[in-house]
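Changelog-adjacent note: as of this version, every example in the card shows the full chain rather than a window. The one below runs 231 residues end to end.
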Amino acid sequence: MSPPAGNVQSVMAVRIADLPASQRPRERLARLGPGGLSDQELLALVIRSGSRGASATDVGTDLLGAWGSLSQLSLAGIDDLERMLSLGSAKAAGLVAAFELGRRAAFGPVPVTIRSPEDLVALVQPLLAGRPQEEVVLVVTNTANRVLRTMPVTRGSSDRCLLVVRDVISAVLRCGGSGFAVAHNHPSGDPAPSPEDRAVTRRLQEAAATVGLRFLDHIVVAGSQWRSAMD
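Full-length structure tokens:
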């Protein structure tokens, strides 16, 4: 996801190390807690150092200005961030990882055994919520429905996701799984399964039965909402 053109306004500023201790983000964090810091200051703590003569706080300001909001910035990819102010691969990766951790933490503890559709949703929702395009996640389980592995399968456009049944079955068998579930997101915000979603669900059920695997569910996630394509 690239930032809107023409919104970057880099500011030449003093280094954070040259600021009075009371104004530095790290010291302010210790004194005020994370809730007392601005978005720019929190970004500066993740970025750690500036770029092209600007402080880390200035880089945070420029990032927010380029993407328009923190929520939009959280969807940026590593390549987009590397190009932004020559941020560099390490800083870009750290920022993407921080946003991903925040998304996962927002949904609470993740179950390790799938006992219900709600358990499956709790597992996959942090991996799919807020994605700008459709993505498919595969959950592989053992005979006791304990999760062996969770992995991305494919990525599509903003309104279409290509899921190849053969690839899903092959991945489950490679992991030594006895059962599996799949989930994907609807960036439109509507969790209702499409006719295509239900058709691929039927094909997955048939393929699983053919090779002796248990197909647990196919979940469609849209933000905090979800539906099963098996309903």
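Structural remarks: The longest strand covers residues 147-155.
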